[in-house]
Design brief:
Organism (chain B): Ruegeria halocynthiae
Structural class of chain B: alpha+beta
CATH topology of the largest domain in chain A: Gyrase A, domain 2
Pfam family, one (chain B): SoxD
Structural class of chain A: alpha+beta
CATH topology of chain B: Folate-binding fold
Protein name (chain A): Sarcosine oxidase subunit gamma
Order of helices and strands of chain A: EEEHEEEEEHEEEH
Mean pLDDT of chain A: 95
CATH class of chain B: Alpha Beta
Order of helices and strands of chain B: EEEHEEEH
Number of domains of chain B: 1
Number of helices of chain A: 3
CATH class of the largest domain in chain A: Alpha Beta
Number of domains of chain A: 2
Oligomer: heterodimer
CATH superfamily of chain B: Folate-binding superfamily
Protein name (chain B): Sarcosine oxidase subunit delta
Pfam families (chain A): SoxG
Number of helices of chain B: 2
Low-confidence stretches of chain B: none
Strand content of chain B: 35-45%
């Protein structure tokens, strides 16, 4: 077999800057879904803290920092982004490697909230949605995970197959905001 | 119309998928007989007033919820996790 070359989901699509807002692809490392076994959530959180330095996030929150993040993804469902899960997690959770299943982008800039307000039906303004807050919601017609990672920066995740749609929808929103001047 | 997800808070109706009357939580036993199964599969109330329904937070956290709402006033009376109602 010939040598295969791995492409990222947004290969050839990003980065992209329109007006004050920049959309770029994030290389977050490995992505593992982690679901605590019945009654093991506390033990799992302790193991996460000891091995990766972050607690199990409560609903609508993310813990950790860039490169080592745990994002709440739903009831009994967290995404560990960055490190490969430590063996001490294995007895406390069902863990699935989903590294290649997700498109992960970063969108940042002065008018980023105006751009996202056009496509996301959740109030993402800083007063309501602070750093470390996360939401499972829609981005136009796609299910997405949206996390604030900075004062003017968000991380957005959609299914890998939706990469082109995501870039298209965000580009249109960015152009719409930029056109208003 | 807005629905309050027990996990995510108040969200727009477009994030939710509608399943129907919350009869699925009271599935008859396999040997319950033809009448019970006919009721379960086909017979539905169509009340002018409060109704219990199953909704799925599809464009969100993925929780199944039992919503009680008033079909006349559109009031959202109650929302509970289906997993807790069933448990």
């Amino acid at each position: 077999m010939g040598k295969l070359i791995a492409n990222t989901p947004c290969d050839g699509l990003l980065p992209l800057t329109v007006g004050s807002v920049t959309l770029s692809e994030e290389d977050v490392g490995a992505i593992h879904s982690i679901s605590p076994l019945n009654g093991k959530q506390k033990a799992l959180s302790e193991a996460l803290k000891a091995a990766h330095g972050m607690a199990y996030p409560s609903a609508n929150r993310a813990t950790g920092k860039a490169g080592d993040r745990a994002i709440w993804f739903g009831p009994s469902h967290v995404m560990l982004m960055g490190p490969a899960p430590d063996v001490t997690l294995f007895g406390n959770a069902a863990i699935v490697d989903q590294s290649d299943a997700w498109t992960v982008v970063r969108v940042n800039g002065a008018e980023v909230e105006d751009v996202l307000a056009r496509v996301v039906p959740v109030d993402l303004r800083l007063s309501q949605f602070k750093r470390g807050h996360t939401a499972r919601t829609l981005l136009f017609h796609m299910t997405a995970s949206i996390t604030r990672v900075g004062e003017n920066a968000f991380q957005i995740m959609v299914f890998r197959s939706m990469a082109e749609t995501l870039v298209h929808d965000l580009k249109r929103a960015m152009e719409g905001v930029a056109a208003r001047g | 119309m807005r629905i309050t997800c027990p996990y995510c808070g108040e969200r727009d109706r477009r994030e939710f998928y509608y399943r129907g009357a919350a009869v699925d939580l009271d599935r008859p036993a396999p040997d319950a007989g033809g009448e019970a199964w006919d009721d379960f599969v086909y017979q539905r109330e169509n009340p002018a007033g409060p109704i219990r329904e199953l909704w799925f937070h599809e464009g969100g956290c993925g929780a199944w919820i039992v919503v009680t709402r008033n079909t006349v006033t559109h009031e959202m009376i109650d929302v509970q996790l289906a997993s807790e109602v069933k448990a």
